[in-house]
Amino acid sequence: MKLLLTLCFTCALLITAESLNCHVCANQNCSTSTSVACPAFSVCSTVTLLRRSGTSTTVTVNKNCSTLPSCPSLLGSETEWSVNQGFAREARRQLCCITNDCNMRTLAVPNSVINGRQCPGCASSAESLNGSCNATVSCEGVEDRCFNSTTLNSTQLMIRGCISNNLCVLQAIFGDLLSGSIDITCGAPCSYRMSTLLLTFAVAAHKVLL
Questions:
Q1: Domain assignment present for 130
Q2: Average pLDDT taken over every residue of the chain
């Protein structure tokens, strides 16, 4: 498997050594883009990023010449990942490719539908700073794991919440999303939120058994 991955990576490097044209955003909101010649060993990238802090949500589109290390997904394969701390969330949908102008398309906004899973989290940045997190986070979109982490830089933070499984194996990307050096533990199964009807049924059944 390691040999196969090495061969694939080497082939990708040889391909990207050739001249490649990619689309680059022509204005701040990327409503238009232009084709430019990229440096050697580049790949084309298109990213739609969703950031939420408190009640404020922003969506940013970026198209550019990128590098293979900044593309965690398979070339030509659209990938979505997300991390949700409760009081803040960041989700990305990304496509990296190696044919001329293959990043012209604008990707859809990452999924924000609550998926029924729940994880321990922080209610605010203040709780994260003082390590007193005791909230519950409703997971959204592709978030299918719980995570718990602490930063390794000068400011010690408790960071926990929901995460997509693909970020659990890409901790370097995860650290970039949270703007810091971190040590994370994730992969614990999330619990599905019990509906009111199911809860009522469970209570009734318990009473019958008693």
A1: yes
A2: 78
